[in-house]
Design a protein that fits this description.
about 160 residues, mainly alpha, 3 strands, disordered N terminus
């Protein structure tokens, strides 16, 4: 467990950032985790979305494919629930993955109302390509922290998430 008194060393903003931001104040937003996390998430998500569009990928394909790979035979319902996806949007993503040959969908023999989803070999190749793009997308953000700081940050994020469940 990381120590509670860890204080990150924060460099002053660069001249270009200071020039753009000037005396910009975040006001009450300065006290909100959500605002800080959303700024980072929005930046990384948009950058990744644009990169995957160049690869001809649908938004959400990477995370859905990764979860299918990590949970062979997962039902669409569980994938939507645990992945936090809208069920209607998820059906479209899986339809697209089937057309591309990345995933297969079959009725669950024990409950014919449920569909089990599995990744194919082509899907694993696509996942590797998408994962490489995701790693490159996060490279600059990761470089802002040392490997040790990054691990502590990941632990803290997971701790916050578990508290919210």
């Amino acid at each position: 467990m990381p120590p509670r008194d860890v204080q990150p060393e924060i460099s002053p903003p660069s001249a270009s950032v200071r020039g753009v931001a000037g005396n910009f104040s975040m006001g009450v937003l300065d006290d909100l985790l959500n605002f800080r996390l959303r700024r980072i998430r929005n930046h990384l998500t948009e950058k990744y979305r644009l990169e995957t569009l160049k690869l001809g990928q649908r938004a959400g394909a990477f995370s859905v494919l990764a979860l299918i790979d990590a949970n062979p035979g997962i039902s669409q319902i569980d994938l939507a629930r645990f992945g936090g996806y809208d069920q209607t949007a998820l059906v479209g993503i899986i339809d697209d993955m089937e057309k591309r040959g990345w995933a297969t969908r079959a009725r669950d023999p024990s409950d014919r109302r449920r569909h089990m989803v599995n990744i194919t070999d082509q899907g694993r190749e696509a996942l590797a390509e998408l994962f490489a793009a995701a790693q490159e997308n996060e490279r600059e953000a990761r470089e802002a922290l040392t490997p040790e700081e990054l691990e502590v940050f990941r632990v803290w994020l997971d701790k916050i998430y578990r508290q919210l469940l």
